[in-house]
Write a structure and sequence with these properties.
12 helices; single chain; TIM Barrel; 8-stranded mixed beta barrel; about 280 residues
Length: about 280
């Protein structure tokens, strides 16, 4: 899909302007990183057993000075094309550690936060040591951080990726597989990755409108649990989906029914104000 089509979903801008945006992102993405023009938003994940927020998934926005907020479905393809994922993933992780350190120092509480990483970044030889160093630099306990493996693309070196995941796991980081059902993960990956959590993509939840879809979803949940991983159901938007996800064996839920992504400076206030934590869902 073109940059123009992607961006049209977010803003009503003329097609010519959309084309110009795509060209500008290609030309200035490194500059935007240099100038720290990306901000964090956090989408909380609900623990069904305790009805409290378990963790927050860190997402990002590009704050363009003229065009306003630009969403990841627009700028991430540019980052991939320019081969900037390695730099971008480390950059967002560092910003996340800064935010978490300040939040904890202010007395805020969250079990952990998770950051998305491309498989190419996670297959680099120094990535595990780099993430450990960054976390240590900001005094953030490793168990407060989770690494989400994205489904967007294959990695460069599967053996190195698995080794890195084990190093991070042993160092105390949680390992999460994101968006299962949409990308490149194989059953072999599930056996070799030291996963703590698997997130089932919303597309599989939508298939549960049929009995067969429900059976297949529940079978997946059972398989992951048998392998020692808890399960997050993604994309929950209705009470019916919430009820099914809870009954399927999923430990966690994420979706607009509970929380939309929240600006980093507002996330704890919004959580405290939420009525769903008082049992209304």
């Amino acid at each position: 899909m073109s940059f123009a089509k992607l961006t049209n979903k977010k803003k009503n801008v003329a097609p010519d302007a959309q084309k110009t945006l795509g060209q500008e992102l290609q030309e200035r993405m490194a500059e935007f990183l240099d100038r720290d023009m990306f901000s964090l938003v956090i989408q909380p994940v609900l623990d069904f057993q305790t009805n409290t927020v378990f963790k927050g998934e860190v997402l990002s926005r590009l704050d363009h000075p003229e065009r306003g907020v630009i969403f990841p479905d627009v700028f991430l393809p540019v980052i991939a094309t320019l081969n900037l994922y390695s730099r971008f993933d480390r950059y967002i992780f560092q910003k996340s550690c800064v935010w978490l350190q300040r939040s904890l120092a202010a007395g805020e509480k969250m079990e952990c936060i998770s950051c998305n990483f491309s498989r190419k970044t996670l297959s680099e030889t120094t990535i595990a040591q780099d993430l450990i160093r960054i976390a240590n630099n900001y005094g953030v306990s490793h168990d407060k951080l989770a690494i989400e493996i994205t489904e967007r693309e294959k990695n460069n070196d599967e053996k190195q990726l698995i080794e890195n995941l084990h190093v991070l796991k042993e160092a105390g980081f949680r390992i999460i597989l994101d968006d299962y059902g949409t990308g490149v993960t194989s059953v072999n990956d599930l056996l070799n990755y030291p996963l703590d959590i698997v997130k089932i993509d919303r597309s599989l939840l939508l298939n549960t409108q049929t009995e067969k879809g429900k059976e297949e979803f529940c079978a997946l949940v059972s398989m992951f649990i048998e392998r020692g991983a808890e399960v997050v159901c993604e994309g929950i938007e209705t009470k019916e989906q919430n009820d099914f996800a809870r009954s399927s064996g999923c430990r966690y839920g994420q979706g607009f029914l509970y929380f939309k992504p929240i600006r980093q400076d507002q996330v704890f206030e919004m959580i405290r104000k939420s009525s769903l934590l008082e049992g209304e869902v």
